[in-house]
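Note to self: keep these together.
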Amino acid sequence: MPNEAATSDHPRGFSLIEVLIALLITMLVMTSVFLLLHKSQKSFAREPEVSDMNANARAGLDRISQDLAVAGFATPSNMAVMWSDGGGLTPDRVGIVYADPEVPVSRPRPCPIGGPCATIGTSTVVSLDPSSLSPQPPDFSQAYQDGMLLFAIQGPNGDPACDAVAPGLVPFQLAGTPTCTGAGGSASGPAACGTLNLTLGPAPTVTDLDPPAGFESDVSLHCAAIGLFHVVQYRVNPLPPSPNPQLERRDAALGEPWSAVAGNIENLQVQYIQGLNEVFEDAPALLPMGADPTTWVTRVRITVGGRSESTNLEGASPGVYAAGDTHLRRTFTTTVSLRNQLSQAQQKAIDLGLDSWN
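Structure:
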């Protein structure tokens, strides 16, 4: 009979069941650690893209807001912005108009009494009233430079007949140095220049201005303001779902090409308020007219949509523009009051006796 004491003292190994349980526990622990590390890696890869996406969208929003803050500076009251509603998911385009503070804004001399008034498009020479230049230069012949790209804007100028004209915008290029004629002869000093003459040429560098429906394609000299008006345009290009859509900007008055303001911007939505209205519209319902400050654009709301560079990030919204479109997205919105338009509108309302603006 075997010795029981000797048998109980003999070393024993793990049973198969114990080994399997230990392996299962080890696998569960390792799986938890792996999942935790995987999640940390995804977060580590995600956060820089989130930071870049937010920075890009905010940079685009800030740049548009800066231009809108000066919209309508020294322009006719019906010309501060030009809208183009994309509709739905298609990005909008917007143009922002303001005068260069270092270049005079001027008006042509009155048209002949009883005779037809020419337009910018049919004129080769435009005669300006030197007293209308603001600011007035010490030498009128240096008010504008040969080869300078200028714009004529149609709108109100104090003559009641011009309060009822539709807005219009026409670029042209000076084909020579301005000259003075009239009572003062050829001298160019403020006391001697009777008429300042501009020789007009085509502006081949200005294309795709994209004016809204209702804007005139030419400008009557009777209701024209002439100057270096910055026409700053924004668009998204290429349109999503193309790779790396960008928010682009150009200043048509400077002959600039489109340049990127912010990367991975897939949407730009712009809405407008006219007068004292409180309802934002995708496009102004009424054409801005000089006689009616309730039609002038006074506030603009901008929404910029940014997306991540990579796809399949945690929190991504799939299928926005295409079936495999799985970018992370953020949207930023701000509203800008057009101070120049509001001040002009308030003064016009006072002139018209409109109590609602007081």
